[in-house]
User: What shape does this take?
Amino acid sequence: MKNKVDVAIIGSGFAGSILAMILAKSGLRIALIDSMPHPRFAIGESSTPLADMILRRLARLHQLPSLEALSTWGTWQKNHPRLTCGRKRGFSYYRHQRGHVFSEHQLGEQSLLVAASANDDVADTHWYRQEVDSFLFQESLNLGVLEFIGHRIVAVDRSAEGSYTLHSIHASGESTIRSDWVIDASGAAGVSAKIMNQPDLTHKLQTKTRSTYAHYKGIGSWTQQLCKLGQDIQQNPFDADDAAQHHLTETGWLWMLRFNNGITSVGLTEWIGEMPTWPENSSHHLNQCAPRTNESQSLPRLVEDYPSLAEMTATASFVGPPNGVQSTGRLQRFFNPLLSPRYLMLPTAALTLDPLHSTGIAHALAGVERILDIILVRSQGKEQMLAMQQYETSFLQESRILDELVNTAYLTMGDFERFTAACMLYFAGAIACEERYQQGEVPSHLWNTDDPAFTNFVTRACAALRDHQEDYQDMISDGLLPWNTAGLMDPGVQNRYAYTATK
Ligand SMILES: Cc1cc2nc3c(=O)[nH]c(=O)nc-3n(C[C@H](O)[C@H](O)[C@H](O)COP(=O)(O)OP(=O)(O)OC[C@H]3O[C@@H](n4cnc5c(N)ncnc54)[C@H](O)[C@@H]3O)c2cc1C
Assistant: This one.
């Protein structure tokens, strides 16, 4: 009966491994299945206050101090100094113009900094996923999880009694694993959606983007660039290098995430198709959406058109992933996360939205928390069924509102003021949710999307931004009042938000 378990988890990324750790610690027999060995390159690196709050809650509740240490920069450095990560004090945005060095006549005209933490000690982090995922996988094995590495899941059958048989292919043949529960934590591979023929809901998403990304050494400091250009950095609430840097261009945006091993994650995310609201002269007609092969190991060519970015990356050299620069087709994919009784997908297996706002890690961890509740707490049939329905409701509503927010941010990217307002809507929801966690509540939905007054307002505000409504500034700052504890939309702070931190 080696291959008979209580819960089979498909995918040993950070989410699958954390779920496996906690279920094993609770006394269940767990199989953790992955087609790839560790360490392996993975994207999705920038954590957020929400992600870290959920991680800390889970770790404390289940007495996993090594996991809790990963929830702030300070405890990470103290407890896991050899595990690579980056310091993230917040989000920074800079609007570049093709052919011109970065400049702004007035502070905040082309830049926005939103603090996410009050100091370095409690800062968030960028996860160097190949090491972090490997560490978490190993921790799960230490807790007795059974590993099935090198096993690619190709089919799942359900018996008349309701248990599952997972079929995998591996180097020495085929295997089966029997389980009462199946949790799909296969991320963007969305294995179960494919093998169970789950209806594809991607057409419901408005966001249409693609990414090109890799890791590089030798990327210069953005703070130093700003100093060299004579830009004011004194008013910055944190060092612009210690952030999820967003460099907005005419066709999308580049992320830069600096790790403490000299490596920087760089990715370009572009809109697919025509963006009607962008300036006339921009070249934004990107209609190819088929995946492209890895042509080179260089940075996206577009960087050369933006002198400040070109200078910052002049000495960059490619370090990974081993198979070269990754270029995706359309990123978005969307499925219902409930497959059948006791067979669920994590939010990140059911949805890939977009890197903007770094929502994936928090969404995955919220899914872990909810699935733990369903399996470990709601053990009665009816109660469990209601909890699964709630899981579906939360996920669908979160996905709908995130899509609205992200899509609007892209559609306004050509006009920095409107883009900033679109970001403020996201930050208001994230901060309201963080505050609820801080007060001991466990909200049923992330990003305050369970508050109908908030979501109705977001829908109206996004429409106002997309429709070029002239009074959008007043409309958004007035409308946000019930949730705006952080002073968002304040013209007096010149896009420098220092006091949004909720931890
Ligand atoms: C370009 C891009 C940038 C992003 N940036 C951010 C960010 O900055 N911040 C953020 O919070 N989120 C970000 N995300 C989202 C983030 O990547 C995901 O939310 C996160 O990686 C999901 O982790 P996971 O553990 O659920 O799955 P993954 O880390 O994807 O792990 C899935 C595992 O399943 C395994 N697997 C796949 N198929 C099979 C199979 N058939 N059988 C067995 N095993 C299988 C894989 O080998 C893998 O190890 C980004 C996403 C993209 C696409």
